[in-house]
Design a protein that fits this description.
With 151 residues, the chain is an all-alpha fold. It has a single domain, classed as Ferritin, core subunit, four-helix bundle (Ferritin). It is 74% helix and 0% strand. Helix 1 packs antiparallel against helix 2. The termini are far apart. The structure holds fe (ii) ion (2 copies).
């Protein structure tokens, strides 16, 4: 059965995914320069995936008798993912993305534990899938961080 803790984490995760979509979209638009092209393309792909995550989380909340939050409940958290003053500062965006992905990884690990405790294997299974996606995103941007730090 579902627990309050599971629902609380799902609702937080939903907000985080939506904030991620907003900041990836903004940075994909704001960044300038030849060096930014690869990052912008990658962000565009990830936007679709993060939006898909939000949708799956929202549907799961509904199945548990809860609902995803609307904008009035929204609390912004992604300080390091704000568009950089210098629109060619690709590395700043890469590091912001890494913060967001690591944060998501932590959230889904917490969700796996909470779902297991609540004996909710469906939510646990969803959390494992989302965790795998976020680990793939992290790995990709760790690669970018190496590449762009040397550049
Ligand atoms: Fe995500
Ligand atoms: Fe991600």
């Amino acid at each position: 059965m579902s627990s309050d803790r599971v629902i609380e984490i799902l609702r937080k995760a939903y907000s985080d995914e939506i904030e991620t979509v907003m900041n990836y979209q903004t940075n994909a638009i704001v960044l300038d320069g030849v060096r930014a092209e690869e990052i912008k393309e990658s962000l565009q792909t990830d936007i679709q995936e993060e939006l898909g995550h939000a949708e799956q989380i929202g549907q799961r909340l509904k199945q548990l008798g809860a609902r995803p939050p609307g904008s009035e409940e929204f609390v912004a958290r992604q300080e390091t993912l704000q568009p950089p003053e210098d629109s060619t500062d690709v590395l700043a965006v890469i590091r912001g993305v890494l913060d967001a992905e690591r944060d998501a990884i932590e959230t889904y690990r917490e969700l796996i534990e909470a779902a297991e405790e609540a004996n909710d294997p469906v939510t646990e299974d969803l959390a494992v899938t989302l965790l795998a996606d976020e680990e793939a995103h992290r790995t990709e941007f760790e690669g970018f961080e190496k590449e762009y730090s040397d550049g």
